[in-house]
User: What shape does this take?
Amino acid sequence: MHSILLVEDDQEITRLLYLHLGQGLYQLTCCSSGIEAIEKMRNGNYNLVLLDITLPDINGIEILREVRQEGVSTPILMLTCHNDEADKVIALELGADDYVTKPFGVRELMARVKALLRRSEQNDSMKQLEKKCIAFREIAIDSDKLKASFKGQRLDLTAKEFQLLFLLASNPGKTFTRHDLLDRIWGYSFEGYEHTITSHINRLRIKIESDLNRPQYILTSWGKGYRFSD
Assistant: This one.
């Protein structure tokens, strides 16, 4: 049974979601504070987190930022009462996997939960088939330990940066469009936000390229997208 953490301070919403998620379908754990949520996400083995942005102690965006910086890779679906594109872009940049605006329909939320869990399982299955270690020039990537190094020094990568680097390095010479990368790393929910790929590529290049004007690892296929050197 899949384990889901719900971080929500609205008791009505908590009760509603417990009725639909916690009655035998999933193992649902609930909490209403950001501090408790961070602790549970650090120590718990959850398949999915439903994270409200507006909490009484810590903003959900800050929680997302902190756990992603710590390497927590659990899929996170953000819940918010704000229909603000800026919030969605920030959540995407920080590594959110989906985003639902309140008031939301239970059927829609259930569909998104199922889609995220299904995609997570598919990703886990693919990882079993992929190369676990990649070494190219001065870069080494270990997908088992979710770490990468450059010139022998461990790279400080967010979960999405690691996934992006690993996908490109696993397919040397293959060009991926921004849409391809967005769909593979973030999924359908962020269609139309391809510009965030450019931001992530730029941050990766800063960390691994000696000369940003003449990149040696992540190359641009002009008018198409990006590829890893072959």
